[in-house]
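Example S7 (structure tokens).
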């Protein structure tokens, strides 16, 4: 019969698979249930996708809910990013729920039309490097900027899309510790992140090379240098890029040997104390004229007390501080580090800001926050706590096509964002995705400005912390100042910076 001849290959394949399952010893499930047991592994492998599209509710997924992703996607495409029929959040029964108190009267009047235009910029309320008189001090044109994600971690096409998007939106693009690649040279201004391996500014033995740094600064639109002490995804850990992933382009970008494992140490070798770090900061600032800052997740507060004490006593100082929340990060790491090492953004940032404010240094430093701050409500809290700018990482990935498949650590990103697989990356069109990245940044700035106007002020950095409340039950709402022990005058730029940003926004 014809059906028998047609089914014979299938039956033979199933029989061979059953024989293999019965003879192998690694999986008890397959020995006991040959062939059928494979269904369990198939369902397990596609479990995230099943939950994402079929099982989970709009507010259940993590790290970004379906509603949050929909807002990013719609914003990046300039589609309708409004939500109708009221909130579907259980406001009164969600501990830590955020409420912004709008003002009946304020210094500024919100516009009455929404309009499609998202072209306006929202500049930083402080000048980066001005307090220390750096030669190339400047006022960042955007309070929203793209956070550090290295070429190597992301595909070249994704980096190119983000850099072009940064140029279109007038924001800064942090290189990540993987140095300045050809994909970072598409018009976007850069913050060069210097990690523990000194990629792009190292000699043949892996030691820091000042002349190489100066040469690359001179050849690239670098506006500031950021010394990475740690990051939220893997605080206190180094990194490893396996030899198989070290392509000729990555090797040239990072100044590393081709075909060998690329190791990032857990700590810097150019300095081993806070005092030595400040010497190194000042040396870099003098040699390049650029503002120099540090990026860190928050753990031991002793470092921050020592840093501010030395800044107050010696006059040496960092120009900016980037605080990364422990809940953030695009880098892969062991689960215990992802879940339980370093403080989450709000708690970590508020503690660090308080240390600076208690010594009267908070007006001389530009504070940058990161860790799911690419969503308007989280960003509003960051500004209320004293951030001058926010960096976006995973939200920028979503804007250029990420679908939260959570395969970044495997190299198999299906949308070509977090992979070095040429076939997967080829599906990402840098020119199209650049427009979406720019639209997202512009829309987030616009929404932050709208919230500021609702709070009666001209700029997000002027939103008072006490106008933001945290709900802890049906009848308890605590102002942000009380939650984090802030004094009434904390969280704002200096009076002169406030006056200047009001003039600029007018």
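Recovered sequence:
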């Amino acid at each position: 019969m014809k059906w028998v001849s047609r089914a014979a290959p299938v039956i033979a394949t199933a029989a061979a698979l059953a024989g293999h399952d019965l003879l192998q010893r690694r999986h008890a499930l397959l020995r006991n249930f040959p062939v059928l047991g494979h269904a369990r592994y198939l369902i397990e492998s596609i479990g995230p996708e099943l939950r994402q599209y079929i099982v989970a509710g709009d507010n259940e997924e993590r790290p970004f809910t379906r509603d949050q992703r929909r807002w990013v996607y719609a914003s990046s495409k300039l589609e309708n990013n409004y939500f109708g029929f009221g909130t579907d959040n259980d406001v009164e029964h969600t501990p830590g729920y955020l409420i912004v108190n709008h003002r009946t009267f304020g210094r500024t009047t919100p516009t009455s039309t929404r309009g499609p235009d998202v072209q306006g910029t929202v500049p930083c309320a402080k000048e980066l490097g001005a307090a220390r008189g750096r030669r190339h001090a400047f006022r960042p044109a955007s309070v929203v900027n793209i956070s550090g994600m290295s070429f190597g971690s992301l595909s070249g096409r994704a980096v190119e899309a983000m850099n072009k998007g940064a140029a279109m939106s007038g924001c800064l693009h942090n290189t990540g510790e993987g140095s300045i690649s050809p994909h970072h040279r598409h018009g976007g201004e850069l913050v060069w992140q210097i990690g523990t391996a000194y990629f792009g500014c190292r000699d043949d033995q892996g030691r820091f090379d000042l002349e190489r740094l100066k040469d690359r600064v001179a050849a690239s639109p670098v506006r500031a240098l950021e010394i990475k002490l740690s990051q939220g995804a893997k605080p206190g850990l180094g990194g490893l890029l396996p030899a198989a992933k070290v392509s000729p382009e990555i090797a040239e970008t990072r100044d590393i040997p081709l075909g060998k494992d690329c190791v990032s140490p857990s700590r810097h070798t150019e300095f081993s104390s806070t005092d030595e770090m400040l010497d190194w900061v000042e040396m870099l600032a003098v040699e390049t004229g650029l503002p120099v800052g540090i990026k860190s997740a928050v753990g031991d507060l002793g470092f921050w007390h020592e840093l501010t004490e030395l800044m107050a006593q010696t006059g040496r100082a960092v120009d900016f501080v980037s605080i990364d929340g422990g809940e953030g990060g695009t880098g892969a790491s062991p689960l215990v580090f992802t879940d339980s090492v370093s403080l989450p953004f709000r708690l970590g940032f508020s503690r660090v800001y308080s240390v600076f404010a208690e010594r009267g240094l908070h007006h001389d430093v530009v504070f940058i926050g990161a860790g799911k701050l690419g969503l308007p409500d989280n960003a509003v809290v960051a500004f209320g706590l004293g951030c001058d700018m926010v960096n976006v990482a995973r939200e920028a990935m979503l804007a250029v096509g990420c679908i939260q498949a959570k395969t970044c650590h495997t190299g198999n990103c299906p949308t070509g964002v977090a992979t070095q697989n040429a076939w997967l990356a080829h599906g990402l069109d840098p020119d199209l995705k650049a427009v979406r990245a720019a639209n997202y940044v512009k829309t987030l700035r616009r929404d932050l400005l709208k919230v500021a106007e609702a709070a009666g002020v001209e700029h997000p950095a002027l939103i008072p912390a006490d106008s933001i409340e945290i709900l802890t039950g049906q009848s308890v709402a605590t102002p942000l100042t009380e939650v984090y022990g802030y004094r009434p005058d904390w969280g704002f730029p200096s009076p002169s910076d406030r006056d200047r940003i009001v003039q600029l926004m007018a």
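Notes on this example. The mean pLDDT is 87.
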